[in-house]
């Protein structure tokens, strides 16, 4: 059953150094606030997992907290490069970054296998590409019925998955809607689950295109309104496309990046303070 | 009306989309082209973004594949495993639009690294949904502006398979999709030779010479017998494209 | 793109003798009306596919139209046996019935493989049971990563799938909601798809727990209000539990069954007449 | 208050359900027992029906797993592949309730045929969700009234695995779930021996003698050293059960 907890407490209790963490969100509902809390607490040597590592992963990598990244597309969507990610891969700054990369479908199916209690999942793809050479977690197998060759991807089971949702109720049941991406599978494949939410409501009313996660599938629910910024929570907040563009110049230079992190993340206590620190600075 | 090579490229790409098709759309040029088509001659085309939004009808061009505009104007939204497994892999996508950092003469694409994989000069974003679009969409349209460092003899990493080593090397692998049928550039159009699958210059944009294309390509380009000249942008095409970009 | 057609026309055009047909519905939204139309048109030597063959399959089998049944649970839910099904298996009346049987999860995953364009799907299960001995379409394979043994089930791709939905719009887009079972996978795995609906609306408003099928994934949409009776369409009709109980006595005896079919199905033209013929007879 | 053996069996089954557990419920006795528990001591238990309804709170007992009552009172409804792959196979079900037409001394169940498979005397409905519940629920509760033709030396078909040939033959197959922990009958309770896994009589209902149980079982029944007597139905248990059945 999910405890309604503070984000600080949840990160302290449920994430340890050297563990694997998936902060999932496919361009929507990205748990940036939880990522900042991980940075504030200086959790280290993490293996980060996510289809689309974006700004918050760029920050975790730039802060030197990440040992390994398992991913399928590492860019600033619609803008360009993630400069801290590139700096780590191209120049090992601030440390070497081990990579394991997949296609979106491949990593999605690794989560599906994990969520399904299976050691692997089958799919088409990978054949004919160089991706197959660079991971142990994809292989080509034969169909036992037709002999056809298909790809197999190994299950992934993060130590902790963190996602952001619009609503929880007081028992810790959670509902998210809109683009729900791979969040259900990321949560179901993990050993521990943290959900940050916009709002705690008395009763959850089912929504179209929604994912409902019963309390018993979650370890901690934390109220973190605005916790996706600059991403968004449909019907609650707006995506700040300007900030995504602005991140390009903040992150391009090591010093500018470090100063920004110092000022807006390390010197703020929580998401509320973080958001306040940006007022008048951004856009 | 005057127009830029980039506008011409987008408009030519839009023209390829016939009405009623389902189209798996990436951000940037593909999204601009697909939405332009939807606003002009293909109002019943079904745009699918890899974020799981199906049948989206954005008014403004989205910055990311997950903009609220896409979620709010879609017929339905499905989770990622479904969009990849049931829709793309399940053969429900007619057209996939792709680009990349590098392309070779058999339309294989690289969006992973420039240089070696373990010690790259430039680390690119990586695969994303491109490899599965390339192998599974019934037909693939590639949009890439011509540049010598992009159109290369040998790409540094095969992220998404085109025709591999040409001829039947793609069909040997049993992919669902028939592969790239067109490469739309900012100077003209390349299409795979029916037999060898080598990209061949088949159309030029008005005022462009064959040599200009060859100058921007890192291999000796095959040229079709009768290279056609593509119709320049019509006013309504240009106006609608500019409107979309402004919104 | 879906044609809005009459059920009579759709069954005539899209179903041929000797083909495989899945009329899916997991206790909800069962396309009984379409099944009756198949009986009226006397389509024969059919291979029927469905997780839960119920009353309408009992009728198709009892009328001698079915050569083979692929299924996972063949009973009258909450009531008992399907007597026509039993009579066919136990006494070959009115003809021999070939069986291929699976577990619910197994047959569901056969549809999933079919819907996913894969030759097979992996799952746990089947091991330790006698089911494995009696089908060619389940096997045990090794995980290429861990060596663990898992079950594989072959893809199933019906020639035609028929489902019932609450709503279509005039373009032939379809929405169903409530218990949606395996209908999406049954439709997506099939070569041809017929959807019968309660209502044709101007615009489909997304509902919670809904499945949306775009027009281009469907061949024919037919308006058949009440077409699930005695099953139901959530928010449109009620399940007639009394009829399910009553079916036990109608179907137990061959003559009673044949008379009932004659009077209520063969002598009626469509679902409307069928429903009218039951007024004052049932409950 | 007076009560029937059937009521006693249902009430004993309900008592096994601790509060807060997730329970995969079949129609009939399991559904009655699980809902009774939810109305008494286990209000926070999560009832999951194989139709995909999760967290259902029916007032009346449903006839089928798909009654509108279940859909209308659930927290959420998921498609079938999800209920089986993500919930049951994904280890999210604490308790599975099962019955069957035949059971053997190692709690293997038959719900497929009486007689031979190819030429059965009685064709039963078949597997449904039972085999996966039997192998994957963390723990399995079996409810079956005692009858000599149901509790047999050798079942005609293994539909759902209990402990197979006993001892470690189940664990050898690497199932997720630990198997049946209890068989609740209308006369008493059988539990698997910790080592051999053979079903053993551990509890009797008030007024029932050991011989009565043996008379209804087709093999020589193992009997525990100290057979306990189960507490008879309490008034509130009986009243609530009758209320549920009437609704």
Question: Would you give an account of this structure?
Answer:
The complex is a heterotetramer, with 2 copies of chain A (283 residues) and 2 copies of chain B (247 residues). Chain A has 283 residues and is α/β, with parallel strands linked by helices. Chain A has 2 domains: 220 residues, Glutaconate Coenzyme A-transferase, CATH 3.40.1080; 35 residues, no CATH class. In chain A, helix 2 links the parallel strand 2 and strand 3. In chain A, helix 3 packs across helix 4, helix 5 crosses helix 6 and helix 7 crosses helix 8. In chain B, the strands form 4 sheets. Chain B has an 8-stranded mixed β-sheet, with helices on both faces. A two-stranded antiparallel ribbon of chain B has the order 3-4. Chain B has 247 residues and is an alpha/beta fold. In chain B, a hairpin with a 4-residue loop joins strand 8 and strand 9. Chain B starts with a helix and ends with a helix. The chains are: A alpha/beta (283), B alpha/beta (247). The interface between A and C is medium-sized, with 26 and 26 residues.
Which residue ranges of chain A are poorly predicted, with pLDDT under 50 across at least 5 consecutive positions?
Answer: none
Any idea what the CATH architecture of the largest domain in chain A is?
3-Layer(aba) Sandwich
Q: Going by CATH, what is the homologous superfamily of the largest domain in chain A?
A: Glutaconate Coenzyme A-transferase
Q: Which CATH architecture of chain B? A: 3-Layer(aba) Sandwich
Shape of chain A: globular
Task: Write the topology of this structure.
The complex is a heterotetramer, with two copies of chain A (about 280 residues) and two copies of chain B (about 250 residues).
Chain A: E1 3-4, H1 7-14, E2 20-23, H2 32-40, E3 46-50, H3 55-62, E4 66-71, E5 75-76, E6 80-81, H4 83-91, E7 98-101, H5 104-115, E8 120-123, E9 138-142, E10 149-154, E11 160-169, E12 174-177, H6 183-189, E13 192-201, E14 210-213, E15 220-223, H7 241-252, H8 254-266, H9 271-278
Parallel strand pairs in A: 1-15, 2-3, 2-11, 3-4, 4-7, 11-13, 13-15
Antiparallel strand pairs in A: 5-6, 8-10, 9-10, 11-12, 12-14
Chain B: H1 5-16, E1 22-25, H2 29-39, E2 46-49, E3 53-54, H3 68-72, E4 76-77, H4 80-88, E5 95-98, E6 102-103, E7 109-110, E8 113-115, E9 120-123, H5 130-136, E10 139-143, E11 180-184, E12 188-192, E13 199-204, H6 210-215, E14 222-229, H7 235-246
Parallel strand pairs in B: 1-2, 1-5, 5-10, 10-11, 13-14
Antiparallel strand pairs in B: 3-4, 6-7, 8-9, 11-12, 12-13
